[in-house]
Amino acid sequence: GENVEQHPSTLSVQEGDSAVIKCTYSDSASNYFPWYKQELGKRPQLIIDIRSNVGEKKDQRIAVTLNKTAKHFSLHITETQPEDSAVYFCAASNTGFQKLVFGTGTRLLVSP
Amino acid sequence: NAGVTQTPKFRVLKTGQSMTLLCAQDMNHEYMYWYRQDPGMGLRLIHYSVGEGTTAKGEVPDGYNVSRLKKQNFLLGLESAAPSQTSVYFCASSYSVGGEWTEAFFGQGTRLTVV
Predict the structure, then answer these.
(1) Which chain B residues have a beta carbon less than 8 Å from that of A1?
(2) How far is Cα A95 from Cα A64, in angstroms, rounded to an integer?
(3) Sheet with B4-7, side-by-side order of all strands
């Protein structure tokens, strides 16, 4: 089955810096890659997603890139703000299996 | 429109007791999931359902059972609770459009402690 690895497990940056979180997946048939943000004590919420027919997607300060050949995808946050502090999860899905497999999460801390 | 609602929000069980967690969604989604979240281990899939009356095992199904008798509800049962089942449980629902995945919506979580 699908296996998703996520790095780093923790990431500390200064406000205004960029942050990059990387994930690799094992199943070449996976075709949907969402990223979720989870604030302390809250539920995970989708922040951006990308499908396998696209190499990059951007939404304001957040972007995701996908390299299907290498089977990895990354989340890029620019001009980080303290409110970006949270745990971020990547995930991968294959429509045929109809389930979402998550990475282990990255705790991002943005210091003022 | 409440989205995905989980009941209860908190629960403490003694080892060997049983309980049922209820997940209800009002978005007419086909797919529903139960995950558990443990520190450093992300969200691990317990069981899932691709439609009313169907269920399937995820990554960590042992010690849990599920039922989806109605499209809007997905129940997670613990027959004989063990301390290893202390966790935060999340329910989620999703749907596909033309075979394409869409966003998974999560419930607020249930914090379960087994003593």
Answers:
(1) 59
(2) 20
(3) B4-7, B19-25, B73-78, B64-67
Please check whether residue A37 is in contact with residue A110, taking contact to mean a CB–CB distance below 8 angstroms: no
HSE at residue B83, side-chain half, CA atoms within 13 A, is 1
Q: How large is the average pLDDT for residues B44-48? A: 94
Q: What is the mean pLDDT of residues B70-84?
A: 97
Q: Residue A107 in contact with residue A8, Cβ under 8 Å?
A: no
- Do residue A99 and residue B33 have CB atoms under 8 angstroms apart? yes
| Per-residue CA distances from B95 to A58, A106, B3, B16, B22 (Å) | 23, 26, 13, 36, 20
Indicate the pairing of strand B10-13 with strand A106-111: unpaired
Averaged pLDDT, B24-52: 93
Site of tokens 């992300």: B42
Map tokens 């402690």 to a residue.
B113
Return the number of other C-beta atoms located less than 10 Å from residue B2's C-beta.
9
- Smallest CA–CA distance, residue A82 to chain B, in Å, is 22
